[in-house]
Amino acid sequence: MAVMLLAALALQLGEGAIDGRWANPDASVVIEIAPCGKMRCGIVTWASEKAKADARKGGTRALS
Fold it and tell me: 63 in a domain, yes or no?
């Protein structure tokens, strides 16, 4: 769902408008969005210990 929202936002604002670092509302995860070929990619650059533990419980090996 979040990916679809970011894609819709990018289309409305124009190319590169969402580039940069973004945090979730709790500031427990920070992602960086940047050009990735013809698309935009987001990578986790920081996550709290609780966010990492929650991700592991959900089957994700590593957030950052």
Answer: no
Give me the average pLDDT of each 10-residue run along the chain (64 residues). Answer: 58 73 95 93 95 94 78
| Tally of domains in the chain | 1
> Does residue 9 lie within any of the structural domains?
yes
Is the whole model's pTM more than 0.85, yes or no?
no
Type of residue found at 29:
V
* Alpha-carbon span 48 to 34, nearest angstrom: 22
CB 45 within 8 A of CB 31: yes
| Cα 33 from Cα 45, distance rounded (Å) | 10
**What is the domain extent for residue 26?**
2-57
